[in-house]
Specification:
By secondary structure, this protein is of the alpha+beta class. Helix content is 57%, strand content 17%. A two-stranded parallel sheet has the order 1-2. The radius of gyration is 17 Å and the shape is elongated.
Length: 47
């Protein structure tokens, strides 16, 4: 099983595809996680 599939590859056993939607989704999820971690950290230190 391959983790990332290139656009030109003809395979079906992959987790992520290297295209604009996947890159946007990964950046969006990473950003949300960073914001949530920062919010938890700030809340912890203000109590």
């Amino acid at each position: 099983m391959k983790l990332i599939k290139e656009k030109t590859e003809k395979r079906r056993d992959y987790i992520f595809q290297k295209d604009k939607k996947t890159i946007f989704g990964a950046r969006f999820v990473s950003g949300v996680l960073i914001i949530l971690i920062a919010a938890v950290t700030v809340t912890y230190f203000t109590l």
